[in-house]
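Quick one: structure for this chain?
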Amino acid sequence: MKRWLTHPYLRQATFDAEPIHIGVRNMSRPDKLKTGIGVFDEDERPPRELKRMSRRQFALTGLSAGTVLLAPDALLASVKTKPPKLPVPPSGASTTFASIKQIEAGLLNVGYAEVGPANGPPVILLHGWPYDIYSFVDVTPLLAAAGYRVIVPFVRGFGTTRFLSSATFRNGQQSVVALDTIALMDALHIQKAILAGFDWGARTADIIAALWPERCKALVSVSGYLIGSQAAGKVPLPPQAELQWWYQFYFATPRGEGGYGKYRHDFAKLIWKLASPKWQFDDATFDRSAASLDNPDHVQIVIHNYRWRQGLAEGESKYDGLEQRLAVGPLITVPTITLEGDANGAPHADGGAYANRFSGKYEHRVISGGVGHNLPQEAPQALSKAVVDVDHF
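Got it. Here's what it folds into:
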């Protein structure tokens, strides 16, 4: 089934449990743009170029908990070649990774899973909070079967990743987490990779694509453009939006820090339920990931991350230059697919709000069927397909 929806401010469309693609494609005559939003099956491509009129600039409110001023509309490009079709995995088909490797990279000894041929095109999958590498446990075999070398690292403060020195400041600011991934790529002798992530992982992937595009072949970002700044994090939001960030304010207090340290598993399960209200995960699935929160640095990293966003905690001055570059909302020029679940209960912006941040070949997809915030684990086929598709942009 295929329909065309032409309302310029359509916020979301859902058709049964089918993925939805929404976007505009690069045109040789941008002065001739017309309105158009395409809705079509995941395995199809529209028979003609999609177009859309430019929209007013406005503030983007997303997981960065702030506001980014948008530049003129980015245009989207069509796929040049048809990528291979991935198999559909049974739900929960993979329960674990064969092994967790360790490698010294930058300030850390990083724990990571590696799947697929060693000489395959590298893909790095980045998780968020309060999740871990098991968000990608059903994604990795699909990509490995397609010939990719898949790397899935534990973020600092999660799982088996540890700081090399007890004297290192437990810093959770956005640029530092991105530098961890660059250091891992260097340690693994990976010059360039496809990056994909959600939540903190999407922000990290966005930052690398924006600041070090020579290291990023292509990008898949769940919930879109998440780069923020301390200044943006201080901007008051409407009450309903503030309510969604309740945990950020809780973490700003000593009571919140102590409470998260004492009840981190209960806290994480609550976030999972709120962020993915239609995902019926079982206790075994949750417990497998919750074990990663027992990392000795976890509470410090999480608390610093959210306090830093609001300007309530200082970062490290040696990273000020990077944060100044990120604060202006730099464009992302690498080929990109952004994804959004149709039942995401976490704070997030409408897809049209951040399309202007992507100046290269770009496509936005809404994945329907009750998919929440943890999209890779809830819809592994959609995430895997996006990686393969963006590699063929």
